TrEMBL record, chains A, B:
Gene3D superfamilies with a match to the protein in the record: HUPs (3.40.50.620)
The Lysidine-tRNA(Ile) synthetase C-terminal domain, residue ranges: 359-431
Superkingdom of origin: Bacteria
Functional note: Ligates lysine onto the cytidine present at position 34 of the AUA codon-specific tRNA(Ile) that contains the anticodon CAU, in an ATP-dependent manner. Cytidine is converted to lysidine, thus changing the amino acid specificity of the tRNA from methionine to isoleucine.
The name this protein goes by in its record: tRNA(Ile)-lysidine synthase
UniProt source species: Maribacter aurantiacus
Gene: tilS
Binding site for ATP: 26-31
One cellular component (GO) term of this entry: cytoplasm
Length: 434, 434
C-alpha cells in the first residue's frame, strides 16, 4: 500500500510534498496509519489532536497515545482540550456538531498561527458509504449522497480511495498499534451498526462493490454539477440585484418545473432548506417573510425580496451613490435631473452635494428631529406626527430617508430644509415615492 | 389498507376507475393482494398471467392458481406460455431480460387487441429499495437510483407507496393465499439476500426508513429533472438538425464541464451509454465512429455527426426538397438559382423539375451506369472509373447523387446528361461540392 499511496500523493496531492501540513490524528486506526504513511513518505507535517473530554480516562489515554506516536515518528504534536459538553449546552447543538465546530475552529486557528496551508484528514471510502447509508436512512437529496470530496478548500483526504479492509490489512502488516476511535459519539450506534451488520452484506452483493460505489458517487457528483449549472443559469436570469438585496419575480419562479426542486436548489445556498416555506411564500400576502440563519426572504407584491437579516434586523437599508430604484423596504426612485420642479409629498429635489453616501432608509426612533422644508429651526418628529394627526399604525409604517444622522425626507410627507436645492446647487437629485 | 388504497386510487389513478385495465398477475403475494383490492373496489380488469416455463411443475402450478383466482374473483384470465430459454439463446440476452421483453410484448399485443388503455402492475416500495441496492452494488448513475415511477406511459403501479410489510400484513389479515413468486430468476439470489439480510437492518437504522427513502427518491427525481432541463438546453444549443442527422460542434462540446457527465447525459437517449467511447471520439481522426443499438456517432472534421444506423448501414442518405446544405456523408450545398453558369467538377446545374425527391446520396454499386453529360448514350460506372484511372481507394470513397434509380452526379467528377438545364427549364438547382 505504501508505494500505491506515494504515487497517489504524487499524482493527486503534489502540494503535500512541497508544504508542511497539519494531520488530524485521533489515535484511531485510520489516522495512525496515515501518520506512518506520511512519515515513510518523508512528508513534513504536525500532528494535531483534539481531546474532547467526552470519555474520561479513555480520552486522556488517546491524548497520551498520540503524544507518544509523535515521539516515535519524530513529528511535533499539538494538543488541545475542549469542554465539549459545555459547548453543547451553550450553543444548543448536538455533541457531534459541537465536536465538529470546536475541532475546525481550532484547526483553522492553528493553520493561521503556524502559516500552514493544508489540513490532512484520514477519511476513507467506507466513511463515504456509511455517511451515504446514514443520510439515506434519514431521507436526503443528492447532496447527502455524493460523499465528502478528496480535496476541498484547504482540506485534503488522501486515504479516501482506500477501503477500511485495505487500511486494516496494511496496519496489521506493519504491526501498528492504535486506539479504538469512538469520537463520533452521536452517530456511534448508527455507524457501528452499519459497519458491522450492513456493509459486509452489501459487499457480498458484488465482488467490486466498493469500486462500483466510488463510480456511483462520481456519476452522482456529475449530475449534481449539471443540475447546479442549470440552477445558476436560472439564478442569473431571475435574481435581479438591487442595492442591498435580490429581487425575484414570483410569476417567473412559478413557471419552473419541477417547482419544489427548483425552489430548494435556488435558495439552499442562502440557508433556506425547507422548500415548503418558500413555496408557501409564493402565494402569501405581501409582507410575509421566512428566515434562514442569515437571510430573510420577503414577499413584496409580485416579488420575493432576498436580503441579509442584519439589514432587516437593524432596519437600516443603504443606498449607494448614483441613480437608484429600490422596491424594498419601500419603493423609491432617485435620479439626477437638470432642473428642479415643485416639491410635493411624493417627489422631492435635493442638492446632491449636501448628501453623505450611502444614504439610508430606516424607521423613526424616539428623539428624531428634522428641519421641515420652508421652516426656520428644527422640530421633533413626535411633535410633527402629532400635528399631522398620524395614528399609531401610520407612525409605525413611516420610513425616513437619511444622510448620515440627518433626516432628508419623512418619506411621502415632508422634506428637510437642509438638503434643498439653492442657487449655488450644482447637481440636483430627485427622489420619488413609487 | 383497503380504504387507503381506494382513496389513493381516486386521488392519483382516477383513470383506473373509469377504464377496464390489464392486471399483471404472477400469483405471488403482491399481485394477488392487488387483484383482491381491485375486485373489492369494484374496478373492471382482466388478469394476465405469463407462464415462462422456467420452473417446470411450479410454473404450471402458478398458472393453475391464477386461473382459479380469476374464477374466485369473477374476472377473466388470459394466459400465455413462453419458451423463455429459447428466447435467451436466440436473442443472446439474460433470462431476466428475456422474461421482461416477452412479457411486455405480450401485454402490448393484448392491450391493442382488447382496446385496453392501462396495464396495472403490483410493484411496491421495497421493490424500489431492492432495485436501488442492486444498482448501487453494480455501480450506477442517478437514473439507476430514482426507482420505477407510479405512472409511466400506459403502466400504473398503485401499490408503489406500500411496503412489503404492509402488504403482507394485509394479505394475512384477509387470509389470502398466494404462490411464492420466483419469476425474477436472474436476480433471485441478490433480491433474496437484500430482502432477508440487508433491508431489515436498514429499516432498523431509522423508524421511518421507508418513508425517508421515498422522500429521497423524490428529491433525486427532482435533481434528475433539473439536470435534464440543463441537458435539453445544451442539446438545443449544440445539436443542429440537418437533413437526416444531427451535427454537433466538437469544440463546443469540449467546453462543457463536467465534460464526461455532459457527454453521458447528452447522448444516453441515443443509446450511447459508454461515455468513454464518445469522449475518445472528440479527439479521434475524421471518419472514426462509434455505434449504439440504433445510432452511429461519427467524427467528421470539427463536428460529430449523429445519425440513425439504418441510413448508414444501407449507405443511403436522403435529401428533402428545397435548398439544402449537408456535411454528411459528404459536403454538398444545393440551392435554387436564377441562371446557370458553367458546370465544373465541383458544381453542377440541374433542371429541378426532372428530379424525383427525396434525392439520395449513396456509394456506387456493381451494375451502376449513367449518361455522362455531353455524351449520347449510357456508360457503365466501372468503365468510367477505369477510363479515369481511379484507384481502388478512390472508387470506394466515391459518392453518387441520385434521383430515384438514376445517377444525377458522380460527385466531384461528372454530371449526368438527363438532368441538365435546357431551354425549357423553369427552375434551376445548383449543387456544389463543399
Amino acid at each position: 500500500m505504501l508505494k500505491d499511496f506515494q504515487s497517489h500523493i504524487l499524482d493527486n496531492f503534489p502540494e503535500l510534498t512541497k508544504n508542511k501540513f497539519l494531520l488530524a490524528c485521533s489515535g484511531g486506526l485510520d489516522s495512525v496509519l496515515l501518520s506512518y504513511l506520511c512519515k515513510e513518505s518523508e512528508m513534513d507535517f504536525i500532528l494535531a489532536h483534539c481531546n474532547f473530554r467526552l470519555r474520561g480516562a479513555a480520552s486522556d489515554g488517546d491524548e497520551k497515545f498520540v503524544k507518544e506516536l509523535g515521539n516515535r515518528l519524530g513529528r511535533p504534536v499539538l494538543v488541545t482540550h475542549f469542554d465539549t459538553m459545555g459547548y453543547v449546552h451553550s450553543h444548543r447543538v448536538s455533541v457531534q456538531m459541537a465536536a465538529r465546530e470546536l475541532r475546525y475552529q481550532w484547526f483553522k486557528g492553528l493553520m493561521e498561527e503556524h502559516g500552514i496551508a493544508y489540513l490532512v484528514m484520514a477519511h476513507h471510502a467506507d466513511d463515504n458509504l456509511e455517511t451515504f447509508l446514514i443520510n439515506l436512512s434519514r431521507g436526503t437529496g443528492i447532496d447527502g449522497l455524493t460523499g465528502i470530496p478528496e480535496a476541498t478548500g484547504q482540506i485534503r483526504r488522501p486515504l479516501l480511495k482506500y477501503t477500511r479492509d485495505t487500511i486494516l490489512a496494511h496496519a496489521k502488516e506493519m504491526d501498528l498499534q492504535w486506539r479504538e476511535d469512538e469520537s463520533n459519539a452521536d452517530t456511534k450506534y448508527l455507524r457501528n451498526k452499519i459497519r458491522q451488520e450492513i456493509v459486509p452484506k452489501l459487499k457480498e452483493l458484488h465482488p467490486a462493490f466498493m469500486e462500483n460505489f466510488e463510480r456511483t458517487l462520481g456519476f452522482l457528483k456529475e449530475t449534481q454539477e449539471i443540475s447546479e449549472n442549470e440552477l445558476e443559469r436560472v439564478r442569473e436570469r431571475l435574481f435581479q440585484r438591487e442595492n442591498q438585496y435580490l429581487k425575484i419575480s414570483v410569476s417567473e419562479l412559478k413557471k419552473l418545473r419541477p417547482l419544489h426542486g427548483y425552489l430548494y436548489g435556488l435558495f439552499k445556498e442562502f440557508g433556506f432548506t425547507e422548500w415548503q416555506n418558500v413555496a408557501e411564500l409564493l402565494d402569501a400576502m405581501s409582507g410575509k417573510s421566512v428566515y434562514s440563519a442569515e437571510y430573510v426572504l420577503l414577499k413584496n407584491r409580485d416579488y420575493l425580496i432576498l436580503a441579509k437579516k442584519t439589514a432587516q434586523e437593524k432596519g437600516v437599508f443603504e443606498i449607494e451613490e448614483g441613480d437608484f430604484k429600490i422596491d424594498y423596504p419601500i419603493g423609491l426612485e432617485g435620479k439626477e435631473v437638470l432642473e428642479k420642479k415643485d416639491t410635493t409629498a411624493r417627489i422631492i429635489y435635493l442638492d446632491k452635494n449636501t448628501l453623505k453616501y450611502p444614504l439610508t432608509v430606516r424607521k423613526w426612533e424616539k428623539g428624531d428631529y428634522f428641519y421641515p422644508l420652508g421652516m426656520k429651526g428644527k422640530k421633533k418628529l413626535s411633535k410633527y406626527f402629532k400635528d399631522e394627526k398620524l395614528d399609531l399604525f401610520s407612525k409605525q409604517e413611516q420610513w425616513l430617508l437619511c444622510s448620515g444622522d440627518a433626516i432628508v425626507w419623512v418619506i411621502g410627507r415632508r422634506a428637510d430644509d437642509r438638503f434643498k436645492v439653492t442657487e449655488s446647487t450644482k447637481e440636483i437629485l430627485s427622489v420619488a415615492l413609487l
